Amino acid sequence: MEKNSGFATRQIHVGKVDIPGIAPLATPIFQTSTFEFDSTAQGARRFSGEENGYIYTRLGNPNIAKISEKLASLENAEAGMAMGSGMGAITTVMWTALHAGDHLLADDALYGCTFSYFTHGLTRYGVEVTLVNFEDLDAVKAAIRPNTKVFYFETPTNPNLKLIDIEAVAKLAHENCPDAKVIVDNTFATPYLQKPIELGADVVIHSATKYLNGHGDVIAGMAVGKADFITECSMFGLKDMTGAVLGPFEAYLIDRGLKTLDIRVQKHCDNAMKIARFLEGHPMVKRVIYPGLESHPRHELAKRQMKNGFGGIITFELNCDRERSAEFVNSLNLCTIAVSLGDAETLIEHPATMTHSTYTPEALEQAKIGESMLRLSVGLEDADDIIRDLDECLNRIEK
Ligand code: LCS
Q1: How many CB atoms sit inside 10 A of residue 32's CB?
Q2: Which residues pair with 374 in a beta bridge?
Q3: Ligand 1 centroid vs 162 CA: distance in angstroms?
Q4: 318 has which bridge partners?
Q5: Predicted local confidence at residue 398, as pLDDT
Q6: How far apart are the two ends of the chain, measured CA to CA in Å?
Q7: Where would you tag: which of 31, 62, 78, 91 has the fewest CB atoms within 10 A of its CB?
Q8: Would you give the distance in Å from CA 104 to the centre of its chain?
Q9: Facing residues of 151 across strands?
Q10: Which atom of ligand 1 sits closest to the CA of residue 154?
């Protein structure tokens, strides 16, 4: 494969594992916990790093190495790694980047368990944590401390689809804190829509459970960045701190999912655009948040920062009380009530009582995560069928 191959070619071909004498098209699953050494001397050489080669699956495995190299290529990063969940990726990276006494500055709208890990977890180990609205660069600047070591945010944010200007935050962070890391959770956008490393971020994190795998059958996490830092995350953060290793079978499924990432995400975006417009025009809908709509407060940033489309997630609020809003959700047929996102099936959930139930009412208010917001992860079904389901159930509660 040529070095300058396009995205689609790379999502299929990067990281090919050669097995002399067999040459299978698909990479077999290396379902093994450990690897044989031909002698004690070879074992010692592998452990000391004198000789390359596999040792033990927590330290490396061909299926995991393949998807790590592939995602690094798709994100235009030097190196990548995979972990047993998105939370495993976040904890591994943060426990590598931060020490007691350091300060973490993060956006206030985060996936609920990330919020909980930062505010209840890291603070127990002497890390100072401040959450501010990263849309407001003056607020970010004012919150910087001499010990700020990590700037962390999602964009678009879960669940309220706030957009953070990656380039502007990275510039501000690096100018004011030269040794701090800018870490972006790119789960909602995927590298097909947005490449934070090209915009100045140091590390990109994914819940690979979502679009990267795309089929709702795997829990996984990934991270990419500079080779030195990813090696430290791998050989200290993952190996010694979290042990959040990904299984070879899960890595195989992610490799398979990645082969169709661009066409899946494109269809999620096309469907979401149609559905967002439908919702915006329905009298029972009070507000629709979707980066592709002109009504999104940062639509211009979305056009600049996200390529090919605006993602598959729509957040909306209805013109009714919580009880009728729940009635609407409960009556849906095609749309399934479930957390997670980025799957072939359209999923709907209520963030305030589900994915973001870790937030206090005050923190929800600060992060502008409305108690009545519904989050729709638009699937790959026919957009007209999803719209029909939403329309029938909206009309039913309107009466
Ligand atoms: N980052 C983001 C932006 C997420 O949405 C999630 C999970 C994670 C990290 C953690 O990844 P995991 O450990 O689950 O692989 N988000 C979920 C959600 O919104 N619904 O269910 C899970």
Answers
A1: 13
A2: 316
A3: 16
A4: 285
A5: 84
A6: 59
A7: 31
A8: 19
A9: 105, 182
A10: 3
Active site residue 277: no
Distances (CA, A) of 115 to 86, 199, 201, 273: 13, 24, 20, 29
Cα–Cα dist 221/153, whole Å: 16
Best probe residue, ligand 1, of 87, 92, 110, 111 (max atoms within 8 Å of C-beta): 111
In angstroms, how far is CA 299 from the centroid of its own chain?
Answer: 21
154 lines ligand 1 (CB under 6 A): yes
CA–CA distance, 94 with 19 (Å, rounded to integer) = 36
Q: Say whether 58 is catalytic.
A: yes
Mean pLDDT score of the chain: 97
* Residue 111 annotated as catalytic: yes
pLDDT of the residue at 2: 80
Q: What would the 3-class secondary structure string for the chain be? A: CCCCCCHHHHHHHCCCCCCCCCCCCCCCCCCCCECCCCCHHHHHHHHHCCCCCCCECCCCCHHHHHHHHHHHHHCCCCEEEEECCHHHHHHHHHHHHCCCCCEEEEECCCCHHHHHHHHHHHHHHCCEEEEECCCCHHHHHHHCCCCEEEEEEECCCCCCCCCCCHHHHHHHHHHHCCCCEEEEECCCCHHHHCCHHHHCCCEEEEECCCCCCCCCCCCCEEEEECHHHHHHHHHHHHHHHHCCCCCHHHHHHHHHHHCCHHHHHHHHHHHHHHHHHHHHCCCCEEEEECCCCCCCCCHHHHHHHCCCCCCCEEEEEECCCHHHHHHHHHHCCCCEECCCCCCCCCEEECHHHCCCCCCCHHHHHHCCCCCCCEEEECCCCCHHHHHHHHHHHHHHHHC
